[in-house]
Amino acid sequence: MLSKNLIKIIFSKKAKGVQYGIERLKEIIVDTLACDEDKVTLEADMQKDLEVDSLSLVELHMALEDELGVSIPDGEIGKMHTVKDIFRLCK
Q1: Of 53, 58, 54, 27, nearest in space to 40 by CA
Q2: Maximum C-alpha span of the chain
Q3: Which position among 1, 17, 24, 83 has the lowest Cβ density within 10 Å, counted as fewest Cβ atoms?
Q4: pLDDT above 80: residue 35
Q5: What percent helix, strand, coil does the chain show, rounded to 5?
């Protein structure tokens, strides 16, 4: 019989792995940038497809650090061109 703690781990969001991480990143991007959810794909270009400007990048930087508990060095997020790049940075 599985312990209660093991059952919690198996059904937790963390156990869902990479797909959960991608979906969570998309949620943060949509909420922070107020962009169309359908446009937020891994291949989406931050400037061309999502129309992100420098102020929006700063807001996204802060939201990612707050929501995901990661530390992103200043200037690094500006080097990211696609949603996939940002996902890799936050992993």
Answers
A1: 27
A2: 53
A3: 1
A4: yes
A5: 65, 0, 35
